[in-house]
User: What shape does this take?
Amino acid sequence: MFEQIKLDYDPAALEPYIDAETMGIHYGKHHAAYTANFNKLASEAGLADKSVEEILADPSVIQAIKNNAGGFYNHNLYFKQIAPGGSSVPTGKLAAKISDTFGSFEAMKETLTNLAMGQFGSGWAWLSKDANGDLFASNSPNQDNPISLGTGHTPILALDVWEHAYYLKYRNLRASYLENLWNVINWDVVGKLYEG
Ligand code: MN3
Assistant: This one.
């Protein structure tokens, strides 16, 4: 059984940056549906004993399963990292690596924002790490991610740019959503994923 992460905070806790109605539909409808569909399809395909990472990385798994596995995995990361509280900027090893790789935290945000803005249609922008702890910025369409694309990198930060992530509040203004999304990233969570 693949389980949707529990939100240990109120859906209104990220106001005014992410509104409660969007949180409720995004988590309670979209993410819940990906999770239910992924469980059903994985079970029917005899994949229920595999990890989601194994399923995403397996080139023999059909696209319908990959789409729902991605929707499940990507949103588990997204909702985990936008928890309220925690540091509002990267700290420790992650902060040092971001400076080494991108020049500064602001430059990293600009790189990821540009990738998120440049993703045509629905998709994601990613900050990922490899086994050496090096950092990579990328984007992907639909529910693809660095694991399903076979890069060998592990995502530590996920920017959802599907319209369902922002349309109720920001309408067509993806740039405004992204600018505000940076205000709710919990860098303690991202730092633990980097060091984990
Ligand atoms: Mn989404």
